[in-house]
Amino acid sequence: MAGPSVVLLQNVGNGAQSLLRPFKDRNEICAEMAATVEVVEDSLGEPDVKVILLGDSAVGKSKLVERFMMNEYQPRQLSTFALTLFRKEVELDGEKGKRTVKVDFWDTAGQERFSSMHPSYYYGATACILVFDVTRKVTYQNLANWYKELRDYCENIPCFLVANKIDVDMNVTSKKFKFAETHNLGFSFVSAADGTNVVKVFKEAVEAACKFKQEGGDFMSDVLDLLGEESSKFGTRLSVECFPRKGFVI
After folding, report:
1. Could you say which of 46, 91, 153, 185 would form a disulfide bridge with 245 (CB–CB 3.0 to 4.6 Å)?
2. CB distance 23 to 79 below 8 Å
Protein backbone atom coordinates (compact mmCIF):
# COMPACT_ATOMS: atom_id res chain seq x y z
CA MET A 1 0.00 0.00 0.00
CA ALA A 2 1.38 3.39 -0.94
CA GLY A 3 2.18 5.70 1.92
CA PRO A 4 0.07 8.77 2.53
CA SER A 5 1.03 11.97 0.77
CA VAL A 6 0.08 14.23 3.69
CA VAL A 7 -1.10 13.49 7.21
CA LEU A 8 -2.24 16.27 9.53
CA LEU A 9 -3.78 15.42 12.89
CA GLN A 10 -4.73 18.57 14.74
CA ASN A 11 -6.71 19.76 17.72
CA VAL A 12 -9.63 21.87 16.52
CA GLY A 13 -11.01 22.96 19.86
CA ASN A 14 -13.64 21.82 22.35
CA GLY A 15 -12.17 18.33 22.66
CA ALA A 16 -12.29 17.56 18.95
CA GLN A 17 -9.48 16.45 16.69
CA SER A 18 -9.35 16.50 12.91
CA LEU A 19 -7.32 14.60 10.35
CA LEU A 20 -7.00 15.98 6.83
CA ARG A 21 -5.60 14.03 3.90
CA PRO A 22 -5.46 15.43 0.34
CA PHE A 23 -5.97 12.95 -2.48
CA LYS A 24 -4.94 13.11 -6.13
CA ASP A 25 -7.64 11.19 -8.00
CA ARG A 26 -10.39 8.64 -7.41
CA ASN A 27 -8.10 5.67 -8.08
CA GLU A 28 -6.00 6.58 -5.05
CA ILE A 29 -8.83 7.23 -2.63
CA CYS A 30 -9.11 3.65 -1.36
CA ALA A 31 -5.49 3.37 -0.24
CA GLU A 32 -5.51 6.89 1.14
CA MET A 33 -8.69 6.38 3.17
CA ALA A 34 -7.53 3.04 4.54
CA ALA A 35 -4.28 4.69 5.62
CA THR A 36 -6.23 7.57 7.17
CA VAL A 37 -8.21 5.20 9.36
CA GLU A 38 -5.02 3.43 10.41
CA VAL A 39 -3.34 6.69 11.39
CA VAL A 40 -6.33 7.88 13.42
CA GLU A 41 -6.80 4.58 15.23
CA ASP A 42 -3.07 4.33 15.98
CA SER A 43 -3.19 7.84 17.44
CA LEU A 44 -6.59 7.86 19.16
CA GLY A 45 -7.75 4.25 19.34
CA GLU A 46 -10.82 2.78 17.68
CA PRO A 47 -14.06 4.77 17.79
CA ASP A 48 -17.25 3.47 19.38
CA VAL A 49 -19.32 4.61 16.38
CA LYS A 50 -18.85 6.28 12.99
CA VAL A 51 -21.24 8.93 11.66
CA ILE A 52 -20.95 10.00 8.01
CA LEU A 53 -22.29 13.11 6.29
CA LEU A 54 -23.70 13.03 2.76
CA GLY A 55 -25.09 15.55 0.31
CA ASP A 56 -24.15 17.84 -2.55
CA SER A 57 -21.23 20.26 -2.45
CA ALA A 58 -21.79 23.51 -0.53
CA VAL A 59 -24.93 22.38 1.30
CA GLY A 60 -23.14 23.13 4.57
CA LYS A 61 -21.94 19.70 5.75
CA SER A 62 -18.58 20.99 6.98
CA LYS A 63 -20.19 24.00 8.66
CA LEU A 64 -22.64 21.77 10.51
CA VAL A 65 -19.78 19.66 11.86
CA GLU A 66 -17.90 22.81 12.88
CA ARG A 67 -20.95 24.14 14.68
CA PHE A 68 -21.42 20.90 16.60
CA MET A 69 -17.72 20.42 17.37
CA MET A 70 -16.80 23.94 18.39
CA ASN A 71 -20.09 25.84 18.54
CA GLU A 72 -18.57 28.27 16.05
CA TYR A 73 -19.46 29.32 12.54
CA GLN A 74 -17.03 30.81 10.03
CA PRO A 75 -18.92 32.12 6.97
CA ARG A 76 -15.85 31.78 4.73
CA GLN A 77 -15.67 28.39 3.06
CA LEU A 78 -12.66 26.68 1.50
CA SER A 79 -13.04 23.60 -0.70
CA THR A 80 -10.20 21.37 0.51
CA PHE A 81 -10.78 18.33 -1.74
CA ALA A 82 -9.75 16.14 1.18
CA LEU A 83 -11.21 13.62 3.56
CA THR A 84 -11.86 15.25 6.91
CA LEU A 85 -12.23 12.96 9.89
CA PHE A 86 -13.22 14.43 13.24
CA ARG A 87 -12.88 12.46 16.48
CA LYS A 88 -14.90 13.71 19.44
CA GLU A 89 -16.06 12.32 22.76
CA VAL A 90 -19.79 12.93 22.97
CA GLU A 91 -21.64 12.83 26.28
CA LEU A 92 -25.05 11.15 26.19
CA ASP A 93 -27.75 10.74 28.81
CA GLY A 94 -28.74 7.15 29.55
CA GLU A 95 -30.83 5.11 31.97
CA LYS A 96 -27.74 4.59 34.13
CA GLY A 97 -26.66 8.22 33.97
CA LYS A 98 -24.33 10.04 31.61
CA ARG A 99 -21.90 8.16 29.40
CA THR A 100 -19.17 9.20 27.00
CA VAL A 101 -19.00 7.84 23.45
CA LYS A 102 -15.99 8.13 21.13
CA VAL A 103 -17.36 9.19 17.74
CA ASP A 104 -15.71 9.56 14.34
CA PHE A 105 -17.51 12.09 12.13
CA TRP A 106 -16.60 11.73 8.45
CA ASP A 107 -17.03 14.73 6.16
CA THR A 108 -16.84 14.34 2.37
CA ALA A 109 -14.88 17.61 2.02
CA GLY A 110 -14.89 17.63 -1.76
CA GLN A 111 -15.06 13.95 -2.68
CA GLU A 112 -18.69 14.43 -3.72
CA ARG A 113 -17.42 16.24 -6.81
CA PHE A 114 -17.34 12.74 -8.34
CA SER A 115 -21.16 12.62 -7.81
CA SER A 116 -20.58 9.52 -5.69
CA MET A 117 -18.45 8.42 -2.77
CA HIS A 118 -15.80 5.72 -2.72
CA PRO A 119 -17.11 2.55 -1.00
CA SER A 120 -14.47 2.96 1.71
CA TYR A 121 -16.25 6.10 2.89
CA TYR A 122 -19.22 3.96 3.93
CA TYR A 123 -17.24 1.14 5.51
CA GLY A 124 -18.07 0.71 9.19
CA ALA A 125 -20.58 3.58 9.29
CA THR A 126 -23.21 3.28 12.00
CA ALA A 127 -25.31 6.37 11.18
CA CYS A 128 -25.68 8.99 8.45
CA ILE A 129 -26.67 12.67 8.35
CA LEU A 130 -27.99 13.52 4.88
CA VAL A 131 -27.95 17.26 4.12
CA PHE A 132 -29.61 19.51 1.57
CA ASP A 133 -29.67 23.30 1.15
CA VAL A 134 -33.13 24.88 1.34
CA THR A 135 -31.96 27.72 -0.91
CA ARG A 136 -31.02 25.39 -3.79
CA LYS A 137 -33.74 23.09 -5.08
CA VAL A 138 -31.29 20.89 -6.99
CA THR A 139 -29.68 19.73 -3.73
CA TYR A 140 -33.08 18.40 -2.64
CA GLN A 141 -33.63 16.73 -6.00
CA ASN A 142 -30.25 14.99 -5.71
CA LEU A 143 -31.12 13.41 -2.35
CA ALA A 144 -32.49 10.35 -4.14
CA ASN A 145 -29.08 9.62 -5.66
CA TRP A 146 -27.24 9.99 -2.36
CA TYR A 147 -29.79 7.91 -0.48
CA LYS A 148 -29.68 5.12 -3.05
CA GLU A 149 -25.90 4.97 -2.81
CA LEU A 150 -26.07 4.97 0.99
CA ARG A 151 -28.42 1.98 0.96
CA ASP A 152 -26.26 0.17 -1.60
CA TYR A 153 -23.42 0.14 0.94
CA CYS A 154 -25.16 0.56 4.31
CA GLU A 155 -28.52 -1.10 3.99
CA ASN A 156 -29.81 -0.65 7.51
CA ILE A 157 -27.95 2.12 9.33
CA PRO A 158 -30.10 4.95 10.75
CA CYS A 159 -30.24 8.05 8.55
CA PHE A 160 -31.31 11.59 9.45
CA LEU A 161 -32.30 14.17 6.83
CA VAL A 162 -31.57 17.82 7.59
CA ALA A 163 -32.68 20.95 5.73
CA ASN A 164 -29.84 23.43 6.21
CA LYS A 165 -29.63 27.25 5.86
CA ILE A 166 -33.10 28.01 7.19
CA ASP A 167 -31.64 31.26 8.58
CA VAL A 168 -31.74 32.63 5.01
CA ASP A 169 -35.52 32.30 4.85
CA MET A 170 -37.47 31.01 7.85
CA ASN A 171 -40.58 30.67 5.69
CA VAL A 172 -39.20 27.38 4.35
CA THR A 173 -39.97 25.78 7.71
CA SER A 174 -43.65 25.82 6.77
CA LYS A 175 -43.00 23.74 3.66
CA LYS A 176 -43.43 19.98 3.43
CA PHE A 177 -40.44 17.93 2.31
CA LYS A 178 -41.83 14.48 1.54
CA PHE A 179 -38.48 12.73 1.04
CA ALA A 180 -38.07 12.08 4.76
CA GLU A 181 -41.61 10.72 5.13
CA THR A 182 -41.29 8.55 2.02
CA HIS A 183 -38.12 6.91 3.31
CA ASN A 184 -39.05 6.96 7.01
CA LEU A 185 -36.15 9.22 8.00
CA GLY A 186 -35.77 11.53 10.95
CA PHE A 187 -36.07 15.12 9.71
CA SER A 188 -35.02 18.50 11.11
CA PHE A 189 -34.70 22.07 9.92
CA VAL A 190 -31.23 23.31 10.88
CA SER A 191 -28.90 26.27 10.51
CA ALA A 192 -25.14 26.00 10.77
CA ALA A 193 -25.05 29.81 10.85
CA ASP A 194 -27.09 30.31 14.04
CA GLY A 195 -26.94 26.77 15.47
CA THR A 196 -30.65 25.93 15.25
CA ASN A 197 -31.16 22.21 16.00
CA VAL A 198 -27.53 21.29 15.18
CA VAL A 199 -26.60 19.79 18.56
CA LYS A 200 -29.97 18.04 18.72
CA VAL A 201 -29.50 16.34 15.33
CA PHE A 202 -25.92 15.24 15.94
CA LYS A 203 -26.71 13.79 19.36
CA GLU A 204 -29.72 11.96 17.93
CA ALA A 205 -27.45 10.50 15.25
CA VAL A 206 -24.89 9.38 17.84
CA GLU A 207 -27.58 7.81 20.03
CA ALA A 208 -29.05 5.98 17.04
CA ALA A 209 -25.58 4.83 15.98
CA CYS A 210 -24.94 3.38 19.44
CA LYS A 211 -28.28 1.59 19.44
CA PHE A 212 -27.65 0.23 15.94
CA LYS A 213 -24.28 -1.15 17.00
CA GLN A 214 -25.63 -2.63 20.23
CA GLU A 215 -28.37 -4.44 18.31
CA GLY A 216 -25.89 -6.20 16.07
CA GLY A 217 -24.81 -3.52 13.63
CA ASP A 218 -23.97 -4.32 10.05
CA PHE A 219 -23.44 -8.00 9.25
CA MET A 220 -21.41 -7.19 6.13
CA SER A 221 -18.94 -5.08 8.11
CA ASP A 222 -18.38 -8.03 10.43
CA VAL A 223 -17.75 -10.32 7.45
CA LEU A 224 -15.24 -7.93 5.91
CA ASP A 225 -13.48 -7.48 9.25
CA LEU A 226 -13.18 -11.25 9.57
CA LEU A 227 -11.79 -11.53 6.05
CA GLY A 228 -9.22 -8.89 6.89
CA GLU A 229 -8.14 -10.79 10.00
CA GLU A 230 -7.84 -14.04 8.05
CA SER A 231 -5.74 -12.44 5.30
CA SER A 232 -3.28 -11.06 7.86
CA LYS A 233 -2.53 -14.62 9.03
CA PHE A 234 -1.02 -15.31 5.63
CA GLY A 235 1.18 -12.24 5.66
CA THR A 236 -1.05 -10.20 3.35
CA ARG A 237 -3.04 -7.09 4.01
CA LEU A 238 -6.61 -7.11 2.78
CA SER A 239 -7.87 -3.56 2.50
CA VAL A 240 -11.47 -4.32 3.36
CA GLU A 241 -12.32 -0.64 2.99
CA CYS A 242 -11.91 -1.07 -0.76
CA PHE A 243 -14.75 -3.52 -1.25
CA PRO A 244 -18.27 -2.45 -2.21
CA ARG A 245 -20.87 -3.58 0.31
CA LYS A 246 -22.98 -5.46 -2.24
CA GLY A 247 -21.80 -7.76 -4.99
CA PHE A 248 -18.16 -7.61 -3.93
CA VAL A 249 -15.73 -10.19 -5.28
CA ILE A 250 -12.64 -11.50 -3.48
Report:
1. 153
2. no
Higher-confidence residue of 132 and 239: namely 132
The pTM for the full model equals 0.77
Residue 168 and residue 170: Cα distance in Å, rounded? 7
pLDDT tens, residue by residue, 41-92: 777 788 999 999 999 989 999 899 989 988 766 554 333 344 678 888 999 9
Q: Is the dihedral of CA 30, 35, 41, 44 positive or negative?
A: negative
Beta bridge partners of 90: 101
Write the CB contacts of 219 (distance below 8 Å, at least 6 apart in sequence): none
Given strand 49-54, what is the order of strands in its sheet?
8-13, 16-22, 82-94, 97-107, 49-54, 127-133, 159-164, 186-189
The domain made up of 8-218 is a member of CATH 3.40.50.300: yes
